[in-house]
Design brief:
By secondary structure, the chain is α/β, with parallel strands linked by helices. The chain contains 12 helices and 18 strands. Strand 10 and strand 11 form a beta hairpin.
């Protein structure tokens, strides 16, 4: 009865030739409903004002494509655990009145997997429009990391001291080591630039992690200090830990120790540098980080150019020896893993600047990408949909 009351209507008055108001003639409700759904012409005779004779029929025309029945709006839900989500919804309506004679496929209360699904309602009475449909979308869980507070600890390569890609005119590659040691971390025009925090690998790593894990607050603290040796880092690390309160520390240090040992070596001496004291200092840093309750991602030293090796013979051999020690620390307590930067970056053009060891902006970007990939592989705990294999 509610549907009948909702759909009842009157035809317009006939005004042609009328001098007094005409009576409204009601169209039977059942004929109106069937006519709207099927495209029939419905007619109701209207009596004229003058002679009470029937006039031409007044027509109500509808298109066969008219859809009286309206399904609910499309639905979107998120799966927080990557499993199917149970979704329910109301009945479709005709003129605001629920239609309870028909069926949904799939039925309300169905659990939908991640993705997009179509739900269709088919009415028992096809004159109401036959069927209608809507979309159910299930989105995946937000990406999630096990840890959100990171600290990059090391020397100028951590702080973001940028090496230029080309040497200026009149400067020989053999002059660079002496110039850098004299500069003590200050920029040298045409050879190296001052620290550029936004181009440092910690800043670029932050820019990779933040949009990927947008539902979490990710922090990458930069605790690099230009010119620092590993022994100085071992003394400084506790204050950095107390300040940044990291859960994961990325440790990249030791090049300045090698550089100083080469500079102090007597002229003509080619004995390999003993890197064991440097390795011991790195172990001390790892122990302090572990005592603080954080994990360590220990990185190998980045490569130097062939020109740098020519000007400071023995540099590459010392880096190789120290990197071997670093790779052997993977089993130390507190070391989550070793990130082998040297293996990934060695031999790639444009990564190391003209000073022979500081990365370029592109080099820092690549270091950030390497750490990013390692962090995702180790610490990503985003729920995944279960996979099933068929036994053969």
């Amino acid at each position: 009865m509610a549907l009948v009351a909702q759909l009842r209507r009157s035809t317009p008055r006939q005004r042609a030739g009328c001098k007094s108001p005409a009576r409204a003639v009601r169209v039977p409700i059942l004929r109106c409903l069937i006519g709207l759904a099927s495209g029939l012409t419905l007619a109701a005779p209207v009596t004229s004002c003058s002679d009470n004779s029937p006039t031409q029929p007044t027509s109500i025309l509808t298109s066969p494509d008219t859809a009286l029945m309206l399904c609910p709006a499309s639905i979107q839900r998120q799966s927080v655990d990557a499993l199917p989500v149970q979704v329910t919804w109301p009945l479709p309506t005709v003129a605001g009145i629920p239609v309870d004679k028909g069926s949904y496929a799939p039925a309300p209360g169905t659990s939908f997997p991640i993705g997009t699904s179509t739900v269709t309602f088919t009415a028992d009475n096809t004159s109401l429009g036959g069927s209608c449909s809507f979309i159910v979308t299930i989105t995946p869980p937000d990406p999630k990391l096990l840890f959100t507070r990171f600290m990059a600890f090391g020397d100028s390569i951590t702080e973001g001291f940028v090496g230029n890609g080309f040497l200026p005119a009149g400067v020989s590659p053999h002059d660079i080591p002496a110039l850098l040691r004299t500069a003590r971390g200050r920029p040298i025009p045409g050879i190296s630039q001052a620290v550029q925090p936004l181009n440092s690998y910690p800043a670029q790593l932050q820019n990779l992690l933040t949009p990927t894990y947008h539902a979490q607050l990710i922090v990458v603290a930069n605790e690099g200090r230009s010119g620092e040796r590993a022994s100085e880092g071992a003394s400084r690390v506790m204050s950095s830990l107390l300040s940044a309160q990291p859960e994961v520390v990325m440790l990249l240090e030791g090049f300045n120790d090698i550089d100083a040992a080469l500079a102090d070596r007597p002229l003509g001496v080619t004995t390999p540098i003993d890197v064991s004291p440097i390795a011991d200092e790195l172990r001390s840093i790892v122990e302090r980080v572990q005592e603080h309750g954080a994990e360590v991602l220990l990185a190998t030293l980045t490569p130097v150019t062939s020109v740098r090796e020519q000007t400071d013979p023995g540099t590459q051999a010392a880096i190789t020896a120290l990197n071997s020690e670093i790779l052997g620390m993977s089993g130390l307590a507190g070391v989550s893993g070793v990130v082998d930067l040297h293996a990934v970056l060695d031999g790639i053009p444009g990564i190391i600047g003209s000073d022979g060891f500081h990365p370029t902006v592109a080099g820092y970007r690549r270091i950030a990408e390497i750490f990013f990939a390692d962090i995702v592989s180790r610490y990503d705990v985003t729920p995944r949909a279960p996979t099933f294999t068929t036994a053969h």
